[in-house]
C-alpha cells in the first residue's frame, strides 16, 4: 500500500510550463510530503573529502517507503519523497519541501519538510564541524566581481573541509530574469561562475528577487523553477550541473539540525505564503531556523526608502518571528544587525548579503541602524555560517578573501 501524501492545494496561473523539449504539467500544490525522489533529497557524499561534493537523484520511492544509500550510510523514509543519506564527509542529510506550486517532496536524512521522515546516518569524519553554509545575493551580473566572489566561496569551502549548501538571496539574473530554461544567461551568470572545485555539486538553494520576476512576472519566475527539473548533461533541454535548486517560489530545506526557509518577498500579495511558512517555522524542531528572502526587513543601505510590495513587512514578520535569523539581499552591501531590532521578535538576528556581484553606496540620508553590528558597501563579498550544536559562527568575507567581520552566536 502506498504511503499517503499530505498536500495543501494552491493553484498556479498558467500551470503548464515548458521544461526541456517537453510540456510539463506543474503540480498546483503548496506542500507535498511525497514526490519526485530526485528533487526531494540531496545526498552528500564523502568520497571526495574537501570538495563539498553533492548530488540528487538516488532516492527510490516505493510502496513501503523511500530509501537511499551514500558513503556507507542509509536512511529510510516511510512516505518521504526519496530517502536522505549522509556520507562519511558530510555527516548530515538534506530534505526539501516545496511551496506555492513547486514539485518537491519531503526528504529524509536529518529531517524533512512537511510530513516526511528524518534520520540519515552520518560518518564520523564530518562530525564536530557542524553544518557549513554560504549565503550570497544579487549575483546575476556575470561580471569579474561575481567570478572573484565565487573564487573566494570555493576557497572557503575547501578550507573548512567542504560546505553543505549555498543560499542565493535573489536577483539571480539582471536585469529581467531568465525567460526560459535555455536562456543564454544561465551560463555566464550561474553555471560558469560557480564551476569551482569547492562548489561543484553543492546545492544552490535560490529565492526570487525583484529582477528575477522580470517584465512578464510569471514567465521569468517559472523558468527558474523549471530549471530545477531538467536532467544534467550537455545536450539540448539539459542543464550543465545539478547545483540549481528552486523547487517552488517558496519552500523549506532541512540540513541536519539547520532548517532553511526560502520565501518570495516580491509576490507577497496575500497572507497565504505567510500562513504556510510561519506554520512550517513553528512546527520545526531544528536547533537553528533561518529564513531567507530577497527584500531586507531592516537595512542601512540605499533601499531603505524603497516602495516595497504592499504589506510585505507585516507578512515577513509573521514568518521570521519564529526564526533565529532573517537573511536577505536587495541592498548591495554586507550588514549584520543584532537581535532585539524588532521588539516583537526579540530573538531574531538580521543579515544582508547582497554584494555577490556589485555594491551600491548608501545615501547620506539613510540613518545607521541602531542595532547595526557591521556594515560595508565598499566591496563585494558573501556570508559564511558554520552551525554546530547551539553555536553559529558567522563571517563576512570579501572578494579578496579577507574576513571583514566575524562573530559567534550562542543560543
Work out the strand percent.
25-35%
How is the biggest beta sheet arranged?
10 strands, mixed
Specify the overall morphology.
globular
* CATH class category of the largest domain: Alpha Beta
Distance between the termini: 43 Å
Strand order of the largest sheet: 6-5-10-15-16-17-18-20-19-21
Q: Could you say what the CATH topology of the largest domain is called? A: Purple Acid Phosphatase, chain A, domain 2
Q: Give the count of structural domains.
A: 2
What kind of oligomer do you see?
single chain
Enumerate the spans where pLDDT stays under 50 for 5 or more consecutive residues: 1-91, 100-128
Specify the helix fraction band.
10-25%
Biased composition (Low complexity): 56-76
Keywords: Hydrolase, Signal
InterPro entries: Calcineurin-like_PHP, Metallo-depent_PP-like, Metallophosphoesterase_PAP
Protein name: Acid phosphatase 5, tartrate resistant
Please explain how this structure is put together.
This is Acid phosphatase 5, tartrate resistant. Keywords: Hydrolase, Signal. GO terms for molecular function: hydrolase activity. This protein is α+β, with helices and mostly antiparallel strands. It folds into two domains: 7-99, no CATH class; 131-410, Purple Acid Phosphatase, chain A, domain 2. 15% of the residues lie in helices and 28% in strands. Strands 6-5-10-15-16-17-18-20-19-21 form a ten-stranded mixed β-sheet. Strands 14-13-12-11-22-23-24 form a seven-stranded mixed β-sheet. Strand 16 (258-262), helix 6 and strand 17 form a beta-alpha-beta unit. The termini are far apart. Mean pLDDT is 71; it is low at 1-91 and 100-128.
